[in-house]
Design a protein that fits this description.
single chain; alpha/beta; Rossmann fold; 8-stranded mixed sheet; AB_hydrolase_fold; Pimeloyl-ACP methyl ester carboxylesterase; Hydrolase_4
Length: 266
């Protein structure tokens, strides 16, 4: 497995983001956003990055409040700025096609980023919630206890190193399904597992129905939830979809001036 080039990024609101870049001699780069309490350095994310890396460059990042990044997690709100910083880093490295790829919370983040900030060429959202405050499964009731209770936030900080903002949302950010229609004409792929223990398939369906064409929905019969359950075949099919999707997009503008600097610190 290739060792990623370390990156230190800074968001528009000044949060330091830890990231890693696996280079690729081509025009496509995948920006990889993890789920709640995860990190790009964990084996499941490294395995996914390696699979995507056969099709393009990869920039994996720790969302704020996670891993070695600074700040506190806002559980899908201001994390759009973290993804935006990684997209900008990919552009500086000369990639012409950026595919944001997110799992669970990260899947909600890449949908919201593409809708609210743009600047990407395709979006893949895997196992994402379509709406906020869902408590219909036991795992999600546990997640809400972690987020909303002081004892829960302390427990997840000690167990997983995840720092959660204590004050919650004010105002409540737009939910993924409320903004998904703004992503077009950028293509969107929604992937959801029929065996997802956190979010039932109705979330994937709601997100897909809210989006505009071009869009696709894959309901995977044996797929569970997010990074840990994602088999190599699924990741490879996602990468192939991305390559086809960006090839159908209009050609990006021809850059002028000097080629972008390739740096390990941004």
């Amino acid at each position: 497995m290739v060792t990623p080039e370390p990156l230190t990024l800074y968001t528009a609101d000044g949060v330091r983001i830890d990231a890693g870049h696996t280079p690729f001699d081509g025009e496509v780069c995948f920006v990889l956003a993890h789920g709640f309490t995860c990190s790009w350095r964990q084996p499941a994310l490294r395995r996914i990055a390696a699979a995507l890396g056969r099709h393009g460059g990869v920039i994996g990042l720790d969302l704020r409040g996670h891993g070695r990044s600074g700040g506190h997690s806002t559980v899908g709100d201001r994390e759009v700025l973290d993804v935006d910083a990684a997209v900008a880093a990919a552009r500086r490295r000369g990639y012409e096609r950026i595919v944001t790829t997110g799992f669970s919370m990260g899947g909600a983040v890449v949908v919201r980023h593409a809708a609210l900030h743009g600047g990407v060429d395709a979006v893949i959202s895997v196992s994402a919630p379509a709406r906020w405050y869902y408590r219909g499964t036991v795992p999600m009731r546990r997640v809400h206890w972690v987020i909303e209770r002081r004892a829960g936030r302390m427990a997840v900080r000690l167990a997983r190193g995840t720092r959660i903002a204590p004050k919650g949302w004010d105002p409540v950010p737009e939910a993924p399904h409320e903004v998904a229609g703004r992503i077009a004409p950028v293509p969107l792929l929604v992937v959801h597992g029929a065996s997802d223990a956190f979010f039932p398939v109705e979330h994937g369906q709601q997100l897909y129905e809210a989006a505009s064409d071009p869009k696709e929905l894959w309901i995977e019969p044996s797929f569970g939830h997010a990074e840990v359950a994602a088999a190599p075949d699924l990741i490879n099919r996602m990468a192939v979809w991305a390559a086809k999707a960006v090839s159908a997009m209009p050609a990006p503008p021809v850059p002028t001036g000097e080629p972008p600097e390739r740096r390990t610190r941004d």
